[in-house]
C-alpha cells in the first residue's frame, strides 16, 4: 500500500555563493535565488526560530513530492546537488573570471526551510550538517573523547612507521601509503558514491595489480585469503566486498549515480582497515615481499586453499557462487602454471 504524499517546497542554503537580490537562476527544476524577508513572510517562516536563519542567504529552492518534511529535504538535496554540478560547470567555463577552481566550490549548507503546499499547509526548517565541516575540538567541546581519539591516531602512526622510516622501501610500501591516503580522502567526500569509490581504490592499491582481471572479484578473493593467512577467525564483511566493488564499477563507468549508502561506506571502510592491518602482519613475517604481485603470489600459492577457504567462509549461498567460480578458476590456473614450471624444470 502506497504511503500518501504531499507537495513540498524546500529551500537549502548554498555555501560560497552570494547572488544579487533580484537574481534567479533556473537549472533542472531548481531555482537559485537570494532568500529575503519578503520570501520568508510568504513562507510564514518569521515565527520559526531555526527556519528563519536561512533569511539573507543564497538558497536553492525546489518542489518535490514526499511523505514527510525530512524525506522532502532528502529528495530536494539530490536534485540540488545535480543542479549545483551544472552551475559550477557553466560558471567555471564562462571565461568571465579567472579559471580558478577555488571560486566554484559551492555546496549545500546546513540551513534549510520547507513548506508543505498541499494538505495541511505548514512550514518548518532548521540546521543539518549537510556537507559542511565541524571542528574536532579536543580541547573543550570533545574533551571527553580526546584520549581514545589521540590514542587511535598514535597507534596507527606506530603501525605505519615502517612505511615511512625507510625500513620497508619498495612498490608494496608505496601502494600501502597510497591506500591510506585513499582511505583518508574518503572521509572528506560529500557523497557516499565518492566515498565508496575512494575505498575501492584503496583496496585495489593493496590487493591487485594493473593486469588483474575482474578486479572486484580479485579484491574479494584476495581479502578472504589474506585474512585466512593471518590467522582467520575475524572475517569482517566478507560478503560485502564484491557487491560494493560492483557498485563502484557502475558509478565510475557512468551507468548509475547515488547508489551507495552509509551502510556500504561503513562496511567497506572496516574492510579497508582490516586489509591494511593484515598486510602489515604479513609483511612483518615475510620481509622478502616487495610488491603487490609478490603478495598476491603468496596468497595464491596453494590452489587447494584458494578453493576451500572461500567455500568455508562464504558457504554455498546463491549470491556467492559467482565469486566461488572465480576462485575455482584462479585455482585451476595456478595448478596449470605449477605443472608447466615443473615440466620445464624436468626437461
Give the secondary structure arrangement, pairings included.
Layout: E1 6-15, E2 24-27, E3 30-35, H1 37-42, E4 57-66, H2 69-92, E5 107-116, E6 123-127, H3 146-160, H4 171-186, H5 192-207, H6 215-229, H7 241-252, H8 262-285, H9 292-299, H10 303-314, H11 321-346
Antiparallel strand pairs: 1-4, 1-5, 2-3, 3-4, 5-6
What does the model show?
The longest helix has 26 residues, at 321-346. 31% of the residues are buried. 50% of the residues lie in helices and 13% in strands. It has helices at residues 37-42, 69-92, 146-160, 171-186, 192-207, 215-229, 241-252, 262-285, 292-299, 303-314, 321-346; strands at 6-15, 24-27, 30-35, 57-66, 107-116, 123-127. The model has no long low-confidence stretch (mean pLDDT 89). It has 2 domains: 6-127, no CATH class; 167-337, no CATH class. Helix 6 (215-229) packs across helix 10 and helix 10 (303-314) packs antiparallel against helix 11. The protein has a 6-stranded antiparallel sheet. The chain has 347 residues and is an alpha+beta fold. The protein starts with 5 loop residues before the first strand and ends with a helix.
